[in-house]
Design goal:
Elements lengths: L6 H12 L6 H23 L8 E6 L5 E5 L2 H19 L15 H16 L7 E6 L9 H15 L5 H12 L7 E3 L3 H5 L20 H10 L1 H10 L5 E4 L2 E6 L2 H15 L12 E4 L4 E3 L2 E3 L5 E3 L1 H12 L9 H13 L4 H11 L7 E4 L4 E4 L3
Parallel strand pairs: 1-4
Antiparallel strand pairs: 1-2, 3-6, 3-7, 5-6, 8-9, 9-10, 11-12
């Protein structure tokens, strides 16, 4: 049966991909150089089953840790958006509530609120014993088996997808998920800095393991990769107060022994998808000592505060604001303030403002009521 994509369908994927990317150089070139021609080229390649992803750009980020990031070219991101638009609904149905990363209506705030509610419920607002198991996976993205992920998405589409593009999705699945961008990429980073990245956070060009952090489909792959594990913990181990954000996992319980007995089973289950625990960051403890998760420390009586490492990182960023680089300074300052607002820590925000105020133009002022930078009028 013929299964061809229409221009309107690809254009819809382009529109969703364009969101928040208009100022990127790759986006500008794709859109302004000949948009229709570029989209038609992708459309023809997809319909003729000749599509091959282009070279990705490799960057190195230092916050919160040194790691490689691979960014697909804009045209390939359009294809990824088409793919995800088609399978998002069936993928959502496979995931447990506690899987919070890169899902509509969820995210870091949702995960932190879910953890907060679990702690309040289990401890009866701080009146009962409450314990947690904190799990951190070692080199998670780089340990994902791309062949295994490709097979999981293939089976999901065969069994659950009811739309009109099953054939093209089955064609795209191995192309997207088995692709190793490190085999042929443009390095957009300092070579000395790249050599400092630990091997567990690098992609091996000749390995079937590792997914490119930064791609929309990689985030979806990271969710589906541990979906069976999520269901196992929640349903078979009966640990229902479960929250996962990518590789950061917290399980809350009133029974400390139950958490201890479950740990060996959890380790065994994770081995099915080639994951191992980071022993330094994995622990069982009373929640009254504070539960570290996604940059915050949460307590059973509902209080959440930023971790010390978060505070240090924020102050370091403030000190790195450069007087000589004022391009988009207002946008960058408010972006960082927006991140700080998540921590409900007014003192930290004001400390940040105090430091950056010495390094920004006098025409930029800070509104303490709105917690926002703006240009002085007049």
């Amino acid at each position: 049966m013929e299964d061809n994509l229409t221009f309107d369908e690809l254009y819809a994927a382009y529109i969703s991909c364009l969101k928040n990317k208009k100022r990127k150089i790759g986006t500008y070139s794709f859109v302004n150089d000949e948009l229709c021609k570029n989209l038609m080229e992708i459309l023809d390649n997809l319909n003729q089953r000749k599509y091959i992803p282009k070279q990705s750009n490799c960057y190195v980020v230092t916050d919160p840790a040194l790691r490689e990031i691979y960014a697909a070219q804009f045209g390939d991101r359009v294809v990824q958006h088409f793919y995800m638009n088609e399978i998002e609904e069936i993928l959502e149905n496979e995931l447990v509530e506690g899987c919070c990363s890169c899902r509509n209506g969820k995210g870091t705030d949702y995960a932190l609120n879910l953890l907060k509610n679990y702690l309040l419920e289990t401890s009866n607002k701080g009146k009962k014993d409450c314990y947690f198991l904190k799990i951190d996976l070692s080199g998670y993205f780089m340990s994902i088996d791309r062949n295994q992920i490709s097979e999981k998405f293939t089976n999901l589409i065969k069994e659950k997808y009811k739309g009109k593009h099953k054939l093209i999705l089955l064609y795209l699945t191995p192309i997207i998920f088995k692709n190793n961008p490190s085999l042929n990429c443009f390095y957009k980073c300092d070579e000395k800095l790249r050599k400092m990245v630990p091997e567990r956070r690098k992609m091996n060009p000749y390995s079937d393991y590792g997914m490119a952090i930064g791609n929309l489909t990689a985030q979806a792959g990271s969710n589906l990769n541990l979906s069976n594990f999520d269901h196992y913990v929640v349903e078979e181990l009966d640990l229902k107060q479960y929250v996962r954000y990518v590789d950061d996992i917290v399980i809350v319980s009133e029974d400390k022994n139950k958490l201890k007995k479950s740990l060996s089973k959890i380790i065994a289950k994770l081995s099915e998808t080639h994951q191992t625990l980071s022993l330094k960051k994995t622990k069982i403890d009373t929640a009254y000592h504070g539960v570290p998760f996604l940059g915050k420390v949460s307590y059973p009586y509902g209080y959440q505060k930023p971790k010390k490492t978060t505070i240090i990182r924020v102050i370091t960023k403030a000190k790195q604001v450069n007087k000589n680089n004022q391009e988009n300074i207002l946008e960058r300052l408010n972006s960082q303030i927006g991140v700080l607002k998540r921590y409900n820590c007014r003192k930290l925000i004001l400390n940040y403002v105090k430091i950056v105020s010495k390094k920004i133009p006098k025409s930029i002022i800070f509104d303490e009521k709105k917690l926002k930078f703006s240009n002085k009028i007049g």
